[in-house]
Amino acid sequence: MLLVGMMTIGSLKAQLPIFIGNSNEPEPISINYGLLPDLGGTEIQNYGLNLSFAKPIKKGVLGARLGYQLFSFDFNSSTNLVNLSTFEDIHSINTGVFYLRPLKNNWRMVVSVGTTLTSNFGDGISEEDFVFNAILGFTKRWGEDNRFSNLLVGAFYGTQFGEPIVFPAVSFSQQLNEHWSYSLGIPVTGLTYRVNAKHSVAILASPQGIFGNNSNEIAVEGNATLKNTKLQFNGINTRLSYRYLFTKNLAFVGEVGFVPNPTLQILDDENEEIFDFDPESGAYFNLGLRFVLQRPKQNNSK
Question: Are the CB atoms for 108 and 137 separated by under 8 Å?
Fold first, then answer.
């Protein structure tokens, strides 16, 4: 069985199979710790692990992915509208399968379906904890091994922008030479400089979202009680990333960045706003380890 990689935890790319508009080596295992220390009085910590596996089959590649994240919130805000303590720990388990099928003229079809269980698990597990996610896309790669282009067109359904929505995916990326590469669009826009085989730096921007269910029954303003309320967070994660490959198959990643104008809200069981934290823009930090597979040489000149 061949291991293949997923990308940054908490981002859209964490749901993408490898070789889709990205020039990095496959990363089948990743461990991360992220911190947003102050979004206008709210601190968010994120602990995560992502795994992915794939196996070539007769007409393509079939794979599976599994990820776990813990989002820990420290709310300095106070409100009489809702009890915030039950929203402090949100767990997210992401599972899915993907299929890559070669087409004519170096095109490939990419299909990924799965589900994300995101909840505080306060009162067990229910259907309200699950969100379906899916990707349908087509990719084309052309050029030489050290100078090539990738195009991705398709559509996504998921929580990368908070509440689940369908959104288009259009991404173009190029490996300009052995040092420089860039990507434009969704899932990631960025510019990467590879210093040498061990060191690389990048400036990146990508969406990040959370849509977690609170299965506890909570009191809201007045005498009302609600169950299956939601915590919604979304923002654009802009960052400077450094990657150090200290063995052939193990890399360290450190990131520092900024999240401008994020959204953080409590929603009722009909996804209507109960409370808006009105968060401020804030700094972002991330540390991670990656298990890396070396990318096979390719020569697609068509």
Answer: no
Integer Cα distance of 35 and 119 in angstroms = 20
Do the Cβ atoms of 116 and 131 come closer than 8 Å? yes
pLDDT of residue 26: 73
Write the CB contacts of 15 (distance below 8 Å, at least 6 apart in sequence). 6, 65, 94, 96, 112, 114, 133, 135, 156, 158
Find out whether 260 and 279 touch, Cβ atoms under 8 Å: no
Q: Please give the biggest Cα pair distance in the chain.
A: 68
- Give the C-alpha separation, 279 to 49, whole Å: 27
pLDDT (tens digit, 9 = 90+) per residue, 19-51? 443 335 778 899 999 999 999 889 999 999 999
Where do the structural domains in the chain lie, given as residue ranges? 12-291
CATH number for 12-291: choose from 3.90.1580, 2.60.40, 2.60.120, 2.40.160: 2.40.160
Residue 254 near residue 242 (C-beta atoms within 8 A): yes
By the 8 A CB rule, do 198 and 292 touch? Answer: no
Position 224 scores a pLDDT of 79
Residue 10 CB: number of other CB atoms within 10 A? 23
- CA 33, CA 56: separation in Å to the nearest integer? 32
Query: E-strand spans in 144-291?
Result: 148-158, 165-175, 180-185, 189-194, 199-214, 218-219, 225-226, 229-247, 250-259, 263-267, 273-276, 282-291
Mean pLDDT of 121-143: 93
> What's the pLDDT band for 146 if we cut at 50, 70, 90?
confident
Average pLDDT of span 156-161? 88
Closest C-alpha to 272, from 167, 163, 129 = 163
Cα dihedral 168, 66, 32, 294 in deg (nearest 10): -80
State residue 235's pLDDT score: 92
